[in-house]
């Protein structure tokens, strides 16, 4: 590989989907590479109506409309022709990102970094999942216009991608669970602690601007999914039955109607805020009294590093979370921990926090100090620099 000064190096980050599905991690990696003075482009497909969340204004992005096989082959070729980087970084072992990156490696021999931020197969049952169709079913899955195997997200392709992880030149993963499973270097979800800086925002002004001034706010700045445990928080609010408490969900769920199911049962406790750009999110998070990360004890949750944690840590917020996966290690006594699927414990800790909010906010300040030290862009950049040097 040609030797470059760091400022001359260009990195192409391949995102699997510009609507959730790894795009936040792609933006984060883009900011890390920019910290190292590398030129960055983010490319990929948009499976959905809109880009969500919007890219930071200083990141170059390019995307094509997502499509199924066989059209996906020609779309991938178009995307390949747009890749200009000296290094390719693929987010998630999926055909729409890592698959394209492997083709680029074959044709252009560029070094390939694979970033693993989830165990994709866990969404389909993990190692127990198998595809064993009879001939007629296989023919339907392949030949019908809406056949299952025409979808690039089919778990069979995910399984193939995971079996091809060894072909990456470097692997980074963001939880111990993923490192144990796939190997590589530890690169947890960091945060731009200069942007997410509580000194820049007035919580009361943010509450007033977002219609939250009359409430004590438990905030979940992410997409509701069953493994994230929001039902446990809502059951805790039922137990407490205090009229000024609210669970504020930021952004909603672009995947299915799960958030509508939550509203149907617990609508009196829920306030939803619209999707926010990366630049707008710190102001919204500042409105929270408490950030909740009530993950349940599932393989999906164990594989993930919840971005909500570093949202709250960077903004010096009290964090109420569960003892799942890496969460206790990440917080390291700077938050409030309960057992998963325990509404009663969540209710007790909500009361504990609001009985002494000053002490809770002190823990939040400790969490920010820990975030700056261990989960900032600067810390991530140090690790990435070492990985790039090894290539």
Question: Which SSEs are present, and which pair or pack?
Answer:
Blueprint: E1 10-15, H1 23-35, E2 39-46, E3 60-65, H2 71-82, E4 87-91, H3 95-108, E5 112-116, H4 135-143, H5 155-163, E6 170-173, H6 176-182, E7 185-186, H7 203-209, E8 216-220, H8 230-240, E9 245-250, H9 258-266, E10 270-273, H10 281-285, E11 290-293, H11 299-303, H12 307-314, E12 319-322, H13 327-331, E13 336-338, H14 343-355, H15 357-374, H16 377-390
Parallel strand pairs: 1-2, 1-4, 2-3, 4-5, 5-6, 6-7, 8-9, 8-11, 9-10, 11-12, 12-13
Helix pairs in contact: 1-16, 2-3, 8-14, 12-15
Question: What do these coordinates show?
Answer:
Strand 8, helix 8 (230-240) and strand 9 (245-250) form a beta-alpha-beta unit. The protein is 41% helix and 16% strand. Mean pLDDT is 94; it is low at 1-6. The chain has helices at residues 23-35, 71-82, 95-108, 135-143, 155-163, 176-182, 203-209, 230-240, 258-266, 281-285, 299-303, 307-314, 327-331, 343-355, 357-374, 377-390; strands at residues 10-15, 39-46, 60-65, 87-91, 112-116, 170-173, 185-186, 216-220, 245-250, 270-273, 290-293, 319-322, 336-338. It is built from 16 helices and 13 strands. With 391 residues, the chain is α/β, with parallel strands linked by helices. Helix 2 (71-82) packs across helix 3 (95-108) and helix 12 crosses helix 15. The chain has a seven-stranded parallel β-sheet with strand order 3-2-1-4-5-6-7, with helices on both faces. The chain has a six-stranded parallel β-sheet with strand order 10-9-8-11-12-13, with helices on both faces.
